Amino acid sequence: MAESLPEHDRILQEIESTDTACVGPTLRSVYDDQPNAHQRFMEKLDACIRNHDREIEKMCNFHHQGFVDAITELLKVRADAEKLKVQVTDTNRRLQDAGKEVIAQTEEIIRCRVQQRNITTVVEKLQLCLPVLEMYSKLKEQMNVKRYYSALKTMEQLENLYLPRVSQYRFCQIMIENLPKLREEIKEISMSDLKDFLESIRKHSDRIGETAMKQAQQQKTFNTSLQKQNNINYGRNIHLGRSRILESKNEITLKRTFEEDDEHEEEVLTAQDLVDFSPVYRCLHIYSVLGDGEIFENYYRKQRRKQARLVLQPQSSMHETVEGYRRYFSQIVGFFVVEDHILHVTQGLVTRTYTDELWNMALSKIIAVLRTHSSYCSDPDLVLELKNLIVVFADTLQGYGFPVNRLFDLLFEIRDQYNEALLKKWSVLFRDIFEADNYSPIPVANEEEYKIVISKFPFQDLELDKQSFPKKLPMSQSVPQIYIQVKEFIYASLKFSESLHRSSTEIDDMLRKSTNLLLTRTLSSCLQNLIKKPHIGLTELVQIIINTTHLEQACKYLEDFISNITNISQVTVHTARLYGLSTFKDARHAAEGEIYTKLNQKIDEFIQIADYDWTMSESDGRASGYLMDLINFLRSTFQVFTHLPGKVAQTACMSACQHLSTSLMQMLLDNELKQISMGAIQQFNLDVIQCELFASSEPVPGFQGDTLQLAFIDLRQLLDLFMVWDWSTYLADYGQATSKYLRVNPSTALTLLEKVHRGMKDSSKKNNIFAQFRKNDRDKQKLIETVVKQLRSLVNGMSQHT
């Protein structure tokens, strides 16, 4: 308890001595102390308050008498103050009356001096305002005469130099308020002029592009002429007089070239002549002065990008005519010629980066458009004109600094389409030539006709040259025509390869590849289709083989022809070769196969009209009529084969004989034929004898010995076996290499023997007169049955062995 009292005194001292805002922490300490500390603190506080009240009361009692004395003295002074006030008022009245006249004079002087000062001030202000008014009047006049750039300069002077001097006047405020409006008006007018300019260049783009492309083409023609002229001048090295003549001619030619070029330059207008570029310069300057140059640049570039998209959008029917492509290219060239002009005559409006970006975008679109529309072109002439337009288009833009390598790469794609169109066109030409050909050797009545044919086709034959006129060339009329058309194709393919900025080696390679396609695909296909046509007979097939042989031999002349027009030697390592050799070989093989097929078909036709009486008792004593007709046909047909290569004729003859032998064998072994008499066997033997005589007569030269007769050996041994009835020898020697009937198969012999056996049975039933005959027949039938059993055992043994 005693400890808390000093603590309360300390708290009361802090409360009395500190600021009111800081009392809170002190009071909080009262509550944070011991229990009932608050009550003790309040008692201490009340005691402190009573002490202060007693001190205040003592102080008031001490000063009370002094206060009463001061009030008494103040009341005495009041009377003196009243007197002083009366005296001061009287003095003031007299002074006011005396100063009225002085005041009046003074006010008059002040008024005059104020007027004088105002006049001076007005003069000074008017001197400041007059230049402002004059400049503003000048500004209005410039606006009226559309000198907007000068008007902006005048506004700048007004704002920076004149108006700040008189800015406090109302008319100046009106001027200041009008200047932004005038600027906006100038911006709107200049922007309107720019829009008219953009519309103008959009309309004139095709004309500008056409002009630029003409100039580029003329420049290229001039450079080519100049290069040729230099080459001529370089070759002047023979005689002085001749040299002078050539020099004078060259000078005249060169002068004419320059004069023609000058005339073209006078006739052809430039982009500046076709379009007034002043609006874009003026608008650029105006926006630059106004500080909105970047806004103007963005607007200009945005509008030009929109125009670029419109220019790059082709018409749907563009691929139908060359004029559609020409208009498309002219518009694009005109667009970029204008951009190039703006790039070089302005600073910052168009940058090289911007034009390159715009060109790359346009180039991708152009390539896509050309790739799509060129695919619709089936006319090679139109594709060639398109290629020439693309070359001029690329050369023109390359002259303005735009990269065009991708366009020349595209031309290689279009070149493939051009070649495809050419191949289709030449396919029709080849078909027409083949259809119009009579497939007979070319007759020449005299030396003149012979030279005409030789001039069209490289043909040499020393033996034929020794013959007198009239004579016949081995090939038919289609051969020189095909050769001429192949050369025309090479010329047509060369036209596309020109001006592609490629080396002679590359052009030579392209020509050879195109020619290879023509030979291996188009001409080969036409030949194959021709060979397969049903109306093409054996004579025509023989002539086709002869034709392909001569065309194959002419391929080396085509290679020389390509080398001559490209100036590339054939000994060059990378020079491609023509594949005509394989093409014509394939066609020849196909024709040979067709000859074999048609011969077999003709043989089948004769076989089908064979009318054997398989039950005849005796033969007619002569060969069947159908077979003699067939042999005569084969004999006449093989006479036509004299111009064919020996192996072809021999193969055809062997194939025909083998097919005839096979057909006759099948006729004997036909399942529908149930029985055969020995008379029919004898008749069949006579027919086979005629076949063997035909084979031995050497219908086609070149066979060694009896090679051709071996085609009928199977039939001969089979028929001999039945004619001689030599079954004991056949069965005894079977399986031996020296067997007389080595080519007779047991199953074949069994089949035919069974048919003969049935024929004998049927014949014995019909001829049932003499018993002796019946006994002979019975013996023969028993022999046949024995042979049949033995043959069946041989056949079964062969099947088990197999």
Automatic annotation (TrEMBL):
Source organism of the structure: Melopsittacus undulatus (Budgerigar)
Residue ranges of domain Exocyst complex component EXOC6/Sec15 N-terminal in the record: 44-213
Keyword Transport: yes
Function in brief: Component of the exocyst complex involved in the docking of exocytic vesicles with fusion sites on the plasma membrane.
Family: Belongs to the SEC15 family.
Domain Exocyst complex subunit EXOC6/Sec15 C-terminal, first and last residues per copy: 407-755
Protein name (database record): Exocyst complex component
GO biological process: Golgi to plasma membrane transport; intracellular protein transport; vesicle tethering involved in exocytosis
Keywords of this entry: Exocytosis, Transport
Top-level lineage group: Eukaryota
Keyword Transport (UniProt): yes
GO cellular component: exocyst; plasma membrane
